[in-house]
């Protein structure tokens, strides 16, 4: 089979065409995806701009929902600080008798730009199932437990189970230690938000 040999004009034309295609890919795909630059707007139209990850400080990184933009929750905010020692009471054995099984539904109201804690008592290895739902909008939540200590400390040791922004959550918990457990709800909006909490399991209301 005889191979086709390009003459000088065809070779120059092929090089120019390749360069043009390369420049087009650079402008439309590479620049929006790698550098966040989209001079023609084609990158946004096609969707390459969504691949761009900024190198700016991680504290400034946000994620978007359909309604609003929220700060990313960092692992550094989880639980007590490193300067707070783990209480000895964490290692106490679970009691032979658990708290009686019960069910409750509670509604709390969170004012604009305010936070509220709602807690219930559990013994070690007590079990609960929970569900909560807002009437409108997202709230910031920190679902956590505090260790019951014989002597009240200056700084409370606690473990965080879930941090985030949501309008609804459900789950279960096997308490790792005795003490109060519950949520810190923060309303960052300009209107009142109601949260309805459903609980069932081995706990007592405070």
List the secondary-structure elements in sequence, H or E. HHEEEEEEEEEEE
Just name the CATH architecture of the largest domain.
Sandwich
Q: How big is the Rg? A: 28 Å
Question: Which strands sit side by side, in order, in the main sheet?
Answer: 7-6-9-4-11
Distance between the termini: 89 Å
Q: How large is the share of residues in beta strands? A: 35-45%
Q: In terms of topology, how is this protein built?
A:
Elements: H1 8-35, H2 42-46, E1 62-64, E2 69-71, E3 101-110, E4 114-122, E5 127-134, E6 139-146, E7 158-166, E8 168-174, E9 179-187, E10 193-202, E11 204-205
Transmembrane segments: 12-31
Keywords: Membrane, Transmembrane, Transmembrane helix
Describe the protein in words.
With 206 residues, the protein is α+β, with helices and mostly antiparallel strands. The chain has two domains: 8-70, no CATH class; 83-205, Jelly Rolls. It has helices spanning 8-35, 42-46; strands at residues 62-64, 69-71, 101-110, 114-122, 127-134, 139-146, 158-166, 168-174, 179-187, 193-202, 204-205. Strands 7-6-9-4-11 form a five-stranded antiparallel β-sheet, with no helix packed on it. The chain has a four-stranded antiparallel β-sheet with strand order 3-10-5-8, with no helix packed on it. It has a two-stranded antiparallel ribbon with strand order 1-2. The termini are far apart. Keywords: Membrane, Transmembrane, Transmembrane helix. The chain crosses the membrane at residues 12-31.
């Amino acid at each position: 089979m005889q191979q086709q040999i390009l003459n000088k004009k065809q070779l120059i034309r092929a090089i120019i065409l390749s360069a043009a295609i390369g420049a087009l890919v650079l402008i439309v795909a590479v620049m929006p995806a790698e550098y966040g630059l989209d001079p023609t707007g084609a990158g946004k139209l096609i969707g390459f701009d969504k691949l761009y990850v900024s190198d700016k400080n991680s504290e400034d990184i946000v994620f978007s929902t359909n309604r609003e933009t929220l700060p990313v929750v960092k692992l550094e905010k989880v639980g007590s600080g490193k300067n707070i020692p783990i209480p000895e009471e964490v290692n106490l054995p679970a009691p032979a008798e658990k708290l009686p099984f019960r069910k409750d539904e509670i509604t709390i109201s969170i004012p604009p730009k305010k936070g509220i804690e709602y807690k219930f008592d559990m013994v070690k290895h007590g079990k609960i199932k929970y569900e909560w739902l807002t009437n409108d909008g997202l709230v910031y939540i920190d679902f956590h437990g505090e260790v019951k200590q014989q002597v009240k400390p200056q700084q409370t040791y606690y473990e965080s189970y879930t941090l985030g922004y949501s309008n609804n959550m459900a789950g279960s918990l096997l308490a790792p230690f005795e003490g109060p457990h519950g949520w810190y709800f923060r309303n960052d909006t300009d209107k009142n938000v109601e949260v309805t909490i459903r609980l069932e399991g081995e706990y007592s209301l405070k």
